[in-house]
Amino acid sequence: MRTHFGGISMRMVAAAILVSAATTATASVTFTGHLDWVSSVAFSPDGTQALTGSYDTTAVLWNAATGDAIRAFVGHTSYVYSVAFSPDGATVLTGSDDNTAKLWNASTGLVALTLTGHTNVVGSVAFSPDGTKVLTGSDDGTAKLWDVTTGSVLQTFTGHTGAVYSVAFSPDGTKVLTGSVDGTAKLWTASTGGLIRTLTGHAGVVGSVAYSRDGAKVLTGSYDGTAKLWNASTGALTRTFTGHTSYVYGVALSPTNTMVLTGSDDGTAKLWNVSTGAVIQTFTGHTLAVNSVAFSPKADRVLTGSSDDTAILEAMPAQTGSIVINGNSSTTNSTQVTLALTWGGGWGGLIDKMRFSDDGAHWTAWEPLAATRAYTLPAGEGYHTVRVQYRGLEGSISPAFSDYIRLDTIPPTGSIVINGNASVTTSQSVSLGLTWTDGAGTGVVRMRFSDDGAHWTPWEYPRTPRAYTLPLPNGYHTVRVQYLDAANNYSPVYNDYINLQMP
Predict the structure, then answer these.
(1) Final residue of a domain: which of 407, 438, 466?
(2) How many domains does one find in the chain?
(3) Which pLDDT tens digit goes with each residue over 400-458?
(4) Cα(44)–Cα(53) distance, rounded to whole angstroms?
């Protein structure tokens, strides 16, 4: 992976970077300005800044949102192979081909401390979780633990039979993980330098390593074209990620340990589902090898560094979704409704939970996805809005999607009067005087009639007066009416009677 960078001064490099413009798009930001391969990338702890290290001998701090260069860290005399942020984001750490590691003030770009002691390339660096120590891996076959205040070596880890290409701390800082050209990864006790175990299984250089946030798993990437996930306590191999067509140079585990990110000599980066080992998404924006990869703190963005001299930030596709109440009905007479739900977007459409709210402030607990769900509206007549949010596999939360429906549980009322309240008629043909009201409800939309209370006319639009034909024979006849509102509430049955006396 090494090239020569000659004939250009460090001052020229820094100037070129700081006047460079970023190429931005809706879903990605491309960081341009380095004059040689981008060998290492990192996000600041708050996710607002990106850090890159390059074979042009510099590291650069960037605005992660805009892609604008903030400052260059200039002082190494050869390639910068590895970069890292301190846990508080105040310090930048770099490892170089000049056999040193340097600590820099992130705000000023000034060197705070130079760590000297390795006898060959410092190819990998990491901060301890508490920020008091740093770890370096070197082509001299060792890893070293340093005090960030004094610069003194606290521990040297020896045991690999080849260059140490990658290093990482366990989340509690008590263990150290190293990956080597000898094809193995090793776990060590940080305080004593004692070897805990050796992870064997790769058929090539182990060029990158990472610890899971909970410390239960370790991840390795190899020149055999695979990444492997291991049980940190037992050393057992739990999953192999296979799909790249060349060396895997960089690996990262997402904060909740549900996704793996890999970068490869094949020019792609891949996002993987830890549970299934399946590829979630392949990133193809680079034109040469992807040397380094990183997740943002919320895993809603990924950062890749490449031999094409650029770094690219890819943002998670927007989460999409919908909710439809009762098949898109406008009204209901019951608080019990059915929700039809759809979801998508995010990393590879991997949405795993949903939750609901009536007011946008108070939400139900997260629950498994379902395309339909029974739901209870809150009591109270009128319009009710139901909101849904979907949660991505990595914890990202979608916007709230909503639908509304009008709840009307109160039936309409009305009346019927035959022939202006006459007591007798000599004709079967009569006129019905009708009234109806639904108060503040959805409104009366239909009415129907019956002579016996068992057999009814079809529903019809309400109107008054309404001509009606009484049945034979002579005698008393009762006419019944019932009203229906838009929410399908039935009124009581109202009636009037009249005495038919045909000559």
Answers:
(1) 407
(2) 3
(3) 999 999 999 999 999 999 999 999 999 999 999 999 999 999 999 999 999 999 999 99
(4) 14
- What is the pTM (predicted TM-score) of this model? 0.80
Domain of 399, CATH number, reads 2.60.40.10
Average of per-residue pLDDT values in the chain: 93
- Residue-level pLDDT at 317: 86
In this structure, is residue 3 part of a structural domain?
no
Same domain, 303 and 350: no
Q: Answer yes or no: do 294 and 325 share one domain.
A: no
Based on the fold, state whether residues 331 and 426 are members of the same structural domain: no
C-alpha triplet 340, 343, 349: angle, nearest 5°: 155
CB atoms within 10 A of CB 453: 11
Number of helical H runs and strand E runs in the chain: 1, 44
Q: What are phi and psi of 144, to 5 degrees?
A: -130, 145
474 shares a domain with 355 = no
Is omega for the bond preceding 473 within 30 degrees of 0, making it cis? yes
pLDDT of residue 27: 67
Q: Which of 280, 315, 350 is a domain's end point?
A: 315
Q: Is position 4 within any domain?
A: no
Interatomic CA distance for residues 38 and 47, integer angstroms: 19
- Smallest CA-to-CA distance from 285 within 8, 28, 17 is with 28
304, 293 Cβ separation under 8 angstroms: yes
- Which conformational region is residue 274 in: left (phi greater than 0), alpha (psi within -120 to 50 degrees), or beta? alpha
Lookup: tokens for 300: 């809603």
Note the pLDDT tens digit of each residue in 17-66: 443 333 333 468 999 999 999 999 999 999 999 999 999 999 999 999 99
DSSP strands (E only) in 86-189: 91-96, 100-105, 111-116, 122-127, 133-138, 142-147, 153-158, 164-169, 175-180, 185-189
Judged against a pLDDT cut of 90, whether residue 183 lies above it is answered with yes
The pLDDT tens digits of the residues spanning 302-341 come to: 999 999 999 999 998 889 999 999 999 999 999 999 999 9
For residue 378, is it within any domain? yes
Distance CA 496, CA 503 (A): 23
pLDDT of 177 strictly over 70 = yes
Q: Are 19 and 148 part of one and the same domain?
A: yes
User: At 280, which CATH number?
Assistant: 2.130.10.10
Instruction: Say if residue 267 is in the same domain as residue 373.
Output: no
85 is a domain residue:
yes
Residues with Cβ within 8 Å of residue 150, at least 6 apart in sequence: none
Instruction: Give yes or no for residue 181 having a pLDDT over 50.
Output: yes
What domain range includes position 479? 413-500
